[in-house]
Amino acid sequence: MLFRSSRLVLALCAVLANHAYAADQFSVRPQQLQNLGITLSTLSPSSSSSLSVSYPAKVILMPDQEQVVSSALNALVTQVMVQDGMAVKAGQPLLRLQSPELSSLQLNLAQAASQSRLAQAAWAREQELFTTGITPQRRLLEAESARQQADAALTQSRVALQLAGMTSAAIQRLEKGGKPESDLLIVAPTAGVINAMSIHPGQRVQPTDALLHLIRPTPAWVEIQLPIATANRYRPGITLQVGDPAINAKLVSLSPVAGGTQTVSARAQLLSKPSQPWLPGTVLSAKLPVIGGAWLLPQAAITRQGAQAYIFVRSKEGFDARPVTVSATSGQLVRVEGPLKAGEQVAVSNIIALKGIWLGESGMEEE
């Protein structure tokens, strides 16, 4: 009894399978095909360079491309000489600050420079006296120690002013007895582009405050968000296009999938400079080549029943409605994947008429 039931179940499954397959096949006579004006196209594998797909991208910076400019002193901003997006050269003035602490640091430097000169003179005198045998070596060693301590104090005072933002030229003038500076001029430590500047004249700043960010926008980098299903087709080293007008870039890395997201972050480096610097955060479009075995068809060849895409493949009796996956679109072309073979013929015009015949024979309702 159990054996007979099993055979019955298998037979029923076969009937259902044949019915499902038959439902996707429908007859179209040659004369009817001509009357409907159906055009056929022969399938050929698509090349990876013939179709591209666009993904959102954003300009980013590498850690070594950004430098924060700040003050080591509590100060008042008296003048701002630059603005966001401005290109500056190394040593170019950026800001002018006033700080009571600056006077104290300059006084320390002046005193340290004076002590260093006195210690140097005392050491030279003791060395001469020791050479002639007038003083013992102990006096010379004491003078040498005093000279080294004075030099160390002078170096410390120089570094304090350098950290505060004073230029080397201003420090040298002060060491030689020059007039103390009444304010502090902050200059660009390197060439770059001003970015993320939020200060204004009259604002008080602290040592922990970032006055502005100085970035080096070249080489430019972009971060591209790729769907997980698509990302595994790409490998570092492929060439893509970014922006409009398009600039070639090289895919450098693919990050692991972040928890809770359905995308993978890909990073690419531009192979040439854009006409204007791209600032971080700028949103662009990146076009990646379609990679993998697939088929190129006109959009007119695709029909949908519910959420499923189909194409009509020519058969001996008429057509097969084949389910396919549309993985990319470019202009009037689509890239499809599915149970297809090279050399098969696909209907590419008047698809609505074929869909009506198909649904009429299968008993399905059009969606």
UniProtKB/TrEMBL annotation:
InterPro entries referenced in this protein's UniProt entry, alphabetically: BSH_CzcB-like, CzcB_C, MFP_Cation_Efflux, RND_pump_MFP
Location of the CzcB-like barrel-sandwich hybrid domain: 67-212
Annotated signal peptide: 1-22
Keyword Protein transport included in the entry's annotation: no
Keywords: Signal, Transport
GO MF entries: transition metal ion binding; transmembrane transporter activity
One Gene Ontology term from the biological process aspect of the record: copper ion export
GO cellular component: membrane; outer membrane-bounded periplasmic space
Presence of the UniProt keyword Transport in the record: yes
Domain CzcB-like C-terminal circularly permuted SH3-like per the UniProt entry, residue ranges: 298-355
Family statement drawn from the similarity comment of this UniProt entry: Belongs to the membrane fusion protein (MFP) (TC 8.A.1) family.
NCBIfam families linked to this entry: RND_mfp
Protein name as it appears in the record: RND family efflux transporter MFP subunit
